[in-house]
Amino acid sequence: MRFVLALDQGTTGSRAIVYDRRGRAVASAYEEFPQHFPQPGWVEHDPDEIWRSVERTIQKALRTVPGTAIAAVGLTNQRETTFVWDRRTGRPVHNAIVWQCRRTADRCRRLSRERGRAALIRRKTGLPIDAYFSATKLEWILKSLRAGRARAGRDLCFGTADSWILWNLTGGAVHATDPTNASRTMLYDIGARRFDPELLDLFGVPAGMLPEVRPSASIFGRTARIGRLPAGVPVAGIAGDQQAALFGQAGFARGASKATYGTGCFILLNTGAKRVDSRHGLLTTLACGGPDGRTVYALEGSVFVAGAAIQWLRDQLGLLRTSAESEAMAEAAGGNAGVYFVPAFVGLGAPYWDADARGTIVGLTRGATRGHLVRSALEAMAYAARDVLETMTRDSGLRVRDLRVDGGAVANDFLCRFQADVLGIPVLRPRTIETTALGAAYLAGLAVGYWESTDEIAKLWGVDRTFAPRLPRPDAERLYRGWRDAVRRTLSR
Predict the structure, then answer these.
(1) H or E stretch including 45?
(2) Does 147 score more than 70 pLDDT?
(3) Which helix (H) or strand (E) holds 386?
């Protein structure tokens, strides 16, 4: 038998999963890596720690599947996180600046006040000016290094996590990315499908630093020997994590939507070949095309903190021992007792885009318990998802009839039920909830002919459980109004 190896390099950990032709995971491994917080609001990763975690998960996943049976490697990754390394030595020249990091928020505010800048960047990239994206992070690194533009263009490589992992997988032979990742840098024109010279000049980025952009389903290069993974295996699919999840959910058609609940919550709506520009704070981004490289657009809403709120309650406050306990605690609470938690630890994303908002808990009384706090964190994920989905409907005119969900948090039945109640539409949990890695596998498999078409892949998708809304609409609307009031108290403006 032949298999496809998917590498999922996420914000808090790295995962390797081996898939068979039916899209079933036959081996997997996961490893967390440290988070670094040099100052309040700053978040960094050590690029070498990330690569070592990827290496180790590859070796663990291939203990039961021979590396010689791997037909292709697919790669998906945390997006926007910014890496810079020396192309001669392969060594990072600075810690990676994570998508959550707010160190360049002031720079973004100044830039937004410059006449015409916000409109220019939105028109070319589909993005608002925000520290979330790569451009100002890269600008900050280059200024901190005091490296001249000439040296940076000649000696340094820039990339998001996919480019860094690809460089190491291929032994430094390939410096490339795909359109989904490029579209998150705030440097890439999503209409012209190229890095934009005007934006590169604005942020002081030499073109020589940039990765080559290739279709998401294409052969990027071949592996160097990495322990159990032999040399010469095609690295044949790359996509940013959220676009990969939409692909893994078989969201190939216009109007398909998905929500991924991980560290954050990210919702995508496939708008097909038509670019839809949001009037209400959403992102216009590129989704995955097939091996033909066709252009597919999507609307995206990014909720910066979702599962990370449960981690905070667990690790910082000690309110629960494991994240899995949150389901039983939420159920036992019986209701939210008027407690709302807006976990704006690093500001608020779509549709608010308030970099200065900070986490807020409202409605506390002497009767509030730790169960109410845990429940409020889970409920916050569902409310924030509704914020985004309602905005998508207004912008696109497309009606979302059901929501496909994935990510580690959707193993929580309470979250899925409450999400259906708040939205008033069915929530579909697939048999495979790690659809981010599955999407990367599908892209790689399509590129090498392991799977023949997206039609074949669509037939592999299946529902584990459908959660139908049960809460009466007046009750759901009352709860949602309480959430919107809590958000208003959190906003900085």
Answers:
(1) strand 44-45
(2) no
(3) helix 370-396
Strands (E), 290-423: 296-303, 340-342, 360-362, 403-406
- Which whole number is the average pLDDT over 134-160? 86
- Kindly provide the b/e burial profile for residues 246-282, where b requires at least 16 CB atoms within 10 angstroms of the residue's own CB: bbbbbbbebebbbbbbbbbbbbbbbbbeebbebeebb
Instruction: Return d(Cα 237, Cα 445) in angstroms, integer.
Output: 8
Instruction: Determine the Cα–Cα distance for residues 437 and 131; give it in Å rounded to an integer.
Output: 26
- Asked if 411 and 433 touch (Cβ cutoff 8 Å), the reply is yes
214 CB-near residues (< 8 Å, 6+ apart): 176, 177, 178, 220, 238
Residues 58, 264, 473, 363: is their CA dihedral positive or negative? positive
CA–CA separation, 426 and 421 (whole Å): 9
CA–chain centroid gap for 452, Å, is 27
What's the pTM value of the predicted model, to 2 decimals? 0.86
The two three-digit tokens of residue 46, written as one number: 């050590």
- Identity (one letter) of the amino acid at 330? A
Is the CA virtual torsion 269, 275, 279, 282 positive or negative? positive
Q: How many CB atoms lie within 10 A of CB 390?
A: 16
| Partner residues linked to 17 by β-bridges | 6, 28
C-alpha to C-alpha distance for 382 and 303, rounded to whole angstroms: 11
- 306 CB neighbour count, 10 Å cutoff: 26
CA atoms within 13 A on the CB side of 265: 33
Are 156 and 83 in contact, with CB atoms under 8 Å apart?
Answer: no
- Measured over the CA atoms of residue 348, residue 354, residue 359 and residue 363, the dihedral's sign is negative
Element at 75 (helix H, strand E): strand 70-77
DSSP state of 35: -
Residue 274 to residue 381: CA distance in whole angstroms: 29
Whether residue 415 is predicted with pLDDT greater than 90 in this model: the reply is: yes
Contacts of 324 (CB under 8 A, 6+ apart): 411, 412
Closest CA to 379 of 488, 487, 491: 487
> Would you state the pLDDT for residue 144?
86
The SS3 assignment for 247 reads helix
Q: Strand pairing partners for 345?
A: 347
Identify the DSSP state of 409.
Answer: G
How far separated are the first and last CA of the chain, in Å rounded?
58
Q: How far apart are CA 103 and CA 3, in angstroms?
A: 42
The residue whose two tokens read 């596998």 is 441
454 φ, ψ to 5°?
Answer: -70, -25
Measured torsion, CA atoms of residues 196, 199, 204, 208, in degrees rounded to the nearest 10: -10
Q: Which domains does the chain have, with CATH numbers?
A: 3-242 (3.30.420.40)
Q: What is the pLDDT of residues 170-226, one digit of tens each?
A: 999 999 999 999 999 999 999 999 999 999 999 999 999 999 999 999 999 999 999
